[in-house]
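Researcher: Go.
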Amino acid sequence: MKYEDIRPTLKSGDLISSSFLQPAFSSWYAFKVAVVQAWTRSDISHVALVWVPPTTKRVWIIEAVVPCVRVRPLSQALDEGEDVYHTPMNCDWSKVEDFAFEHIGTPYSQLLAMVSSIEPWKHGKYTECAGLTIDIMNAAGIDLGNIATPQDILRHAMLRPGATQTLITK
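Model: Structure:
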C-alpha cells in the first residue's frame, strides 16, 4: 500500500518491520546486518515502533540502531529503499510514551543483537531493536515473547487476533 494512503491509519505503538535489501558485501554496514540476520535466523532485519505526535500528523519511528536509540521519520526508511511492513498493535500508547522516550540515546549493542537469539530476553537488558520493542510493548501490556529477534517479534505480533501485515511502498 502506498505510504500516502496508509499514513493516516498509522498509530503510535504500531509495529514496523523491515528488511535491509543491499547485498551483504556492498558495505561494512550491510555485511554486519547480514551477519546478525543470519545468526538470529531472521528474514527481517529490523523492528521499530510508530510514533505520531498529537500536535502533528508526521509519522516517526522509535528504533534502536547504531549508535543509539533514536527517533526518525518513517518516510526516511522508505527513502532509503528498505522493505517496510506495518502491523497494527492497538496498544494504549499513552501508558508507554514516556517510558519509550526514556530510551532515546541509549547505546546500541551489536553483540547483544547476536546473543538475543540464544538467550531469553530480560527486561532492560537489550539495547537493540527487538529488545527495545519487547520492553516498550511489555509496558503497554502486550506480550511479544521472550526471544529478542526481529523475526520472533513479528511472529508474536502476527499471532494476535486480527493481526495484519502491510507492505508500505513509496
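Model: Residues 121 and 146 are 5 Å apart (CA to CA).
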